[in-house]
Amino acid sequence: MWGGRTGALLRVWGLWPAGVRGRRPLGCNAASLAGNNSPQCWNCGGPGVPKRGDGFFCPQCRALQPPDLTRDYFSLMDCNRAFAVDTAKLQNRYQQLQRLVHPDFFSQRSQTEKDFSEKHATLVNDAYKTLLAPLSRGLYLLKLHGVEIAEGTDYAMDQQFLMEIMEINEKLAEAQSEAAMKEIESIVRAKQKELSDNVSKAFEQGLAEPSVATW
Ligand SMILES: [Zn+2]
């Protein structure tokens, strides 16, 4: 992952999500998961649930089915596969999924369903956190398009950007009033929007090309 100094700077800008470092790889081991490739319900052997959509439960016996690990986070969270996401919608979806699969609702159910609910809940949490923070969302999007960013990769920071951050840090240190803090906050927000828009544009242009590895 990126260097600590860069991480600290990005954290200032709210671009560095918590919990990204050490996040386990996104590789799917769906094939090794018993029952995941089978459309049948593990409990009653019924036709099971369609791959797409929100059929987490068997329509016949209502048993919770195992998570589909081949489904990407954008699909799970019902978001367009793009850098720009509607975070309010993402949050609603997160709450909706929590209400369906949270382990608290399975305390009286079979051990198998308890285990599945744990897996669903972990997956939903990971998906939500990954898509909520711009940096992890961008990296995940790149990964879906086959672009891997190696651990420990560091990037030379734009000098002008560094200067801007230093200026803001100075202003923050000197800020004496709430009004001054609010002013700094609005500067940071504007800059953040500008940067996000740039990344969004780069994704739209880059992903239309055969390779996005060059930007
Ligand atoms: Zn069933």
Outline the structure in words.
It contains seven helices and no strands. The longest helix is centred in the last third of the chain and has 29 residues. It is elongated. The N terminus and C terminus are likely disordered. The chain binds zinc ion (ZN).
Topology diagram in text:
Elements: H1 4-12, H2 73-76, H3 87-101, H4 111-132, H5 134-144, H6 159-174, H7 178-206
Helix pairs in contact: 3-4, 4-5
GO molecular function: ATPase activator activity; metal ion binding; protein-folding chaperone binding
Pathway: Cofactor biosynthesis; iron-sulfur cluster biosynthesis
Domain Co-chaperone HscB C-terminal oligomerisation: 157-205
Give the gist of this structure:
This protein is mostly helical and 215 residues long. The chain is built from seven helices and no strands. The protein is elongated.
- Give the CA-CA distance, first to last residue: 18 Å
Bound molecules: zinc ion
User: Which word captures the global form?
Assistant: elongated
Portion in strands? under 5%
Spans of at least 5 consecutive residues with low confidence: 1-37, 210-215
Q: How would you state the average pLDDT, rounded?
A: 78
Number of strands: 0
N-to-C SSE string, H for helix and E for strand? HHHHHHH
Q: What profile does the largest beta sheet have?
A: none
Rounded radius of gyration (Å): 21 Å
Helices, by number, come to 7
Specify the helix fraction band. Answer: 40-55%
Strand-pairing-aware structural class: mainly alpha
Keywords: Chaperone, Cytoplasm, Metal-binding, Mitochondrion, Signal
Family: Belongs to the HscB family.
Subunit structure: Homodimer. Interacts with ISCU (cytoplasmic form); this interaction stabilizes the (Fe-S) clusters on ISCU. Interacts with the CIA complex member CIAO1 (via LYR motif).
Organism: Panthera pardus (Leopard)
